[in-house]
Amino acid sequence: MRIRIPMLAATVAASLTAAVSLSAHATPPMAAGGMYTDAKGMTLYTFDKDPASGPSACSGGCAQAWPAVMADSSDKPQGDWTMMPTADGGNQWAYKGKRVYRFAKDQKPGDANGDNFKDVWHTVKQ
């Protein structure tokens, strides 16, 4: 009888990788200094011009500067954190009914360079 240890090892490694990937996507936003951040410590923002329902008001160049915080298929809404559909069929995280974004000019965890930007972008606060 021939034992296929490399195949078993590959299967175990793939299973562990999948488990780690799922837990990485399901990490809820964290509070840091009164603001919510993603799992990497990057500040989260809302946009005053977004409608209460319907598509985001941030597209094109705006979406490049302010990337949407997308939810993974394994993520589940909880409390004030919900999901809103995107134009491409995905789901974007929302806090208290407002879509959530990151700011491209935030370079390191804890940066909040986009807070009150043009008086329409605001950090997500507890």
From TrEMBL:
The lineage of its organism: Bacteria, Pseudomonadati, Pseudomonadota, Betaproteobacteria, Burkholderiales. Coiled coil: none annotated. It holds the Pfam family Lipoprotein_15. Keywords: Lipoprotein, Signal. PANTHER family: BLL4220 PROTEIN. This is Lipoprotein with Yx(FWY)xxD motif. InterPro entries: Lipoprotein_repeat, UCP029720. Residues 1-26 form the signal peptide.
